Amino acid sequence: MPYKYGRIAGNRREVGQALGKLARPMMSAYLNQSSTWEALRRWREHPYVDELGQQAQAALPEIWEELEGLADGLRMPVKDVLLWNCRGDLLHSTTDGCTSVALKGADGTRWIGHNEDGDPYLYGRCHLVDVALDDAPGYVSFYYPGSLPGHTFGANRAGLVQTINNLRTRLRQPGVPRMFLARAVLDCATLDDAVALLQDLPHSGGFHHMLGSATDPRLISAEAAPGSVSVMDIGTRYGHANHMVHAKAREQPQVITESSRDRQNRIEGIVDGWSPETGSADMLTALHDTLGALPILRTDAADPDGENTLATAMFEIRDDEVTLRVYDRRKIADIALDVMSDPE
């Protein structure tokens, strides 16, 4: 199994504390083996990190309260937890990868599929969390230990679906850290609300957001980076790896790894052959494709980006209904959630 499953309920601080407690037993060992954490240590006590924290607290005070609760549950200093959650805003390259695909079916069903690629150490050590909040729709999300949920794959009980791909932008400028923004999207009630959030707030890092909704027929690809947000209605089919490919954004300075380039080329070639009659089985096959030296499904211990596929998600989006199924590489995991229903 690529994850453990847990339910959490409460106010912002209580939810953060519970997330921290889930991660606390392994957090020290996780960080000690992490090359990303090693690279981040030079940023400790840097005034730029304080500025990112101030921007997050001012723009998204509810998410900041969750971060404070997370630090409490982890029994770590808030500054260190902030630093960890700003890793993609501070470093040009981190061990966060991913590939996403999307498709509109002939009957109106929308599909979003996603490979969650990350630090191989996390395989089998993550959680799928089902969170009920006092003041927001609540959500289901894949949860990395010590990280705000939302920067992986998830959906909320307003019917909004989000998957995230890392963008390795070379720009660094003050703004709201990207993981705070991804978490805030899961509080949005509509697709328009999510797009407005991404367009209105300043970004200090880069993410690709694949967005869908049970209350909206559109599927949205958004490349959000410092100084630029490109939003595109994807039409019928789409695939995205880990670099900016929108015409508006692709000329920005960025790191394009060989893995990301190969996966983008491969997924575009596969997706070009899809039609509205293509089903979720074909999408899953694409995400589990192993062709080439740097394949879409990443299981090589010597992966050049230091990433492996931790789980695969398939979202089926219908009017007033979203269903999530999570797969362990080629083996289906034992969970299927109607994320629009109330938690038991």
From TrEMBL:
PANTHER family: BETA-ALANYL-DOPAMINE_CARCININE HYDROLASE, PEPTIDASE C45
Record's protein name: C45 family autoproteolytic acyltransferase/hydrolase
Keywords linked to the UniProt accession: Acyltransferase, Transferase
Domain of life: Bacteria
Alphabetical list of NCBIfam families matching this protein: C45_proenzyme
Domain Peptidase C45 hydrolase: 107-329
InterPro entries on file: C45_proenzyme-like, Peptidase_C45, Peptidase_C45_hydrolase
Pfam families associated with the record: AAT
GO molecular function: acyltransferase activity
Organism: Achromobacter spanius
Keyword Acyltransferase: yes
